[in-house]
């Protein structure tokens, strides 16, 4: 009967070594990717913080919409003239924990379609109102009529959560800013509605509501934490593999 073959300790390390190298490379690549994301996010924050103080430009019209990079234009100061369609308001649920004005807490952002002098429509976030003042009847003094000029920050739309089905509200109470859905619910022609909205500046409204100029500029930036996590896991893997390899080479299980 032939004697059973005995694998050398070194040969037993071939497969674990290959696996460890692959996982180590993957963890390091994830760490490097997060490092690049960290620098991108810091540059974006600096760019936006500088941009919001620029002089406003004309809000992009229909001829610009097909090629408009909404991510690049987010938070750009713009202005537009026309009149509000106050009977078509939409309400975005939210909270204002650190208000610049006197009103804060849980409430609603009032989005009102604004027909421009050129005929197209853009939704304007006129500002924040407490829950008790959501309906126009509770803030009649602030329902602006006639020709006005609105200045504020261009904002890109948000994708509604899948938890809310098709995203269409039946009572004009919303959980994501998406002008196309606001327009569809209000029966406005989609082709005439801008793909972005405008957050109105702090120009006071009669009666104090809605309270404009409350745009919150927050960019979650946890990338440094992720960098430390991925590279930490990579070096922890190295330490564990070294301990394992030493055990194998010494003949232990």
Automatic annotation (TrEMBL):
Keyword line: Cell membrane, Membrane, Transmembrane, Transmembrane helix
How is it placed in the membrane, per its record?
A: Multi-pass membrane protein
Predominant subcellular localization, coarse grouping: membrane
Compartments where located: Cell membrane; Membrane
Q: What residues form the membrane-spanning segments? A: 13-33, 226-245
The UniProt similarity line reads:
Belongs to the SURF1 family.
What is the protein's name according to its record? SURF1-like protein
The source organism is: Kaistia dalseonensis
Classification from the root reads: Bacteria, Pseudomonadati, Pseudomonadota, Alphaproteobacteria, Hyphomicrobiales
